[in-house]
Amino acid sequence: MTPGARIAAAIEILDVILDGASPEKALTGWGRGHRFAGSKDRAAIRDHVFSALRCRASFAWRGGAATGRGIMLGATQADGSQDAMFNGEGHAPRPRDADEIGRAIEDAPRDVRLDVPEWLLPHFDGSLGEDADAALTALQSRAGVFLRVNLRKVTREKAAEILAEDGIKTEPVANVSSALHVIENERRVAQSRAYAGGLVELQDTSSQAAIEALKVTAGLRVLDLCAGGGGKALAMAAFGADVTAHDIDPGRMVDLAPRAERAGVEIATVTTDQLASCDPFDLVLCDAPCSGSGTWRRTPAAKWALTPERLIELTTMQDDVLGSAVDLVRAGGTLAYATCSVFEVENNERVQLFIERSSSFDLVSSHLTMPHARGDGFYLCVMKRR
């Protein structure tokens, strides 16, 4: 496919997404209907689509319409490739029409310039203050690919060497002992020997740093209460902890067993009914369901789909998760509450309400990481049970 044809494909896919389909469903549907497209074509089209979703409002402003074509007109105007991409040659989209009038991004309101729904600006401002614009700007760009080295099996330096033998270039991330940043051939990671051998797992640096901050030690009895795919459970098991994983939807943990086997660790899983018979744990991690506002460059459609009503639902769920953890923490044990959100309403406000309701816990520390070049936005709070 020509570069212009890839833009045309992105336009088609974006229109399907704007009609209500999820990005993955729209991309998969397009791929099934266009089997002539090679892997490089599909990867390039995917990049176009996700870039457009990250900057949907500002690109639509530049392009003059909140449609697939308008958004991609704005995208190519932003990167200076519009004349080359919208030339009508072959399968490329036709040139810009006289009535397709875009606007200068400098004239756009703040929410449009920063690509965020207007109703969310007070949440960013109230939580991040003068750093809000920097965080929102970071969320407009593509996230990096980061690996957690399984230090139980290999050193970070050796893992980097093995990845390099498969053509995957990495560099260490400062202040996170297990992290590597993939800087060449990101898409080869899943087929690499290092990945197949359990030497590395995909995991953002902010999540890795949070696990390191918990100071997990060998033999510590840990419960990952909202385990999902099990990335944090695996990271804690790599430190030698005795890890039990739970999720209210067991189907989310379907990949945990093969991932644990690959990593050379054992992780027990329990259902909600089985939790009641578990002895209290030394550490309970509540990585609660949240808006994901710190990770929206990875899931850009989520920021446009979030509603005020859904945010209230999420805070209620977070309160429920914290409440369910109370009797699972032993006396003198640790309760850690984490989200990948930067919103105060999902973070400190939930913790303060919990402490008011559960007087047996004391706040030890809390830390919010803003989205940045080498990591997602992430919140971690540590509490101690008396």
Automatic annotation (TrEMBL):
CDD domains tied to this protein: AdoMet_MTases (cd02440)
Keyword match Methyltransferase: yes
Annotated Gene3D superfamilies: Sun protein, domain 3, Vaccinia Virus protein VP39
TM helices/strands, residue ranges: none
Domain SAM-dependent MTase RsmB/NOP-type per the UniProt entry, residue ranges: 135-386
Protein keywords: Methyltransferase, RNA-binding, S-adenosyl-L-methionine, Transferase
Gene Ontology biological process terms from the UniProt entry: methylation
Pfam families found in the cross-reference section: Methyltr_RsmB-F (PF01189), RsmF-B_ferredox (PF22458)
Similarity remark: Belongs to the class I-like SAM-binding methyltransferase superfamily. RsmB/NOP family.
Protein name (database record): RsmB/NOP family class I SAM-dependent RNA methyltransferase
Annotated source species: Octadecabacter dasysiphoniae
